[in-house]
Amino acid sequence: xxxxxxxxxxxxxxxxxxxxxxxxxxxxxxxxxxxxxxxxxxxxxxxxxxxxxxxxxxxxxxxxxxxxxxxxxxxxxxxxxxxxxxxxxxxxxxxxxxxxxxxxxxxxxxxxxxxxxxxxxxxxxxxxxxxxxxxxxxxxxxxxxxxxxxxxxxxxxxxxxxxxxxxxxxxxxxxxxxxxxxxxxxxxxxxxxxxxxxxxxxxxxxxxxxxxxxxxxxxxxxxxxxxxxxxxxxxxxxxxxx
Length: 242
What we know:
The chain has helices spanning 2-10, 28-54, 59-80, 92-115, 141-146, 170-173, and strands at 81-84, 87-90, 131-135, 150-155, 160-166, 187-194, 197-204, 207-216, 219-226, 232-241. The chain has an eight-stranded antiparallel barrel. It has a two-stranded antiparallel sheet with strand order 1-2. It is α+β, with helices and mostly antiparallel strands and 242 residues long. Strand 8 (207-216) and strand 9 (219-226) form a beta hairpin. The protein has two domains: 2-122, no CATH class; 131-241, Lipocalin (Beta Barrel), CATH 2.40.128. The chain starts with a helix and ends with a strand.
């Protein structure tokens, strides 16, 4: 275990955070020590805010928060660590920034609880990878009948996102909508998730579209801008599990 931990702490790809005793690290080991201190404090802040929020929720809210936290942990682990024949590696810079963003999300939800009341539909802020997000989100049968195509997004734990348009259902896309199938048409990019805010740009042979917005439970509310034709607008995506 000691060898694994040493290997884990070696992988640092961002500058050390400012600290009263860490403004000028003497060498890489000092920088590593300082960055590790920041991560430990960030993890402590995370646990404190999680406990505070949990204490304010009803049983249904507690279940949603726990599910969201487990999903976030899985996302953090997959994005900020990996294992190979040399050992287990953790990018402390990634882990720290991800943890700080999650803490802000929990703090914002706690502030809502003590001011306006708890909103259970905002408690699951982690993106889901076991299906697709589809837009628009029709509210009536007439809306659905008038649609000519759907817009789809699919996120992956490694930080990649793919986007496409299709007349097919979510189950239809399950057969071909994958980043591993390069012969199918879609645009792709890398997403950033900070608390409940998600942003990314998806690029295809035709050009790039920018996306930015918030995650609210199983819905994504995004503003988009197309560098292809200059169109800008707002879309709401609903998650469909596979």
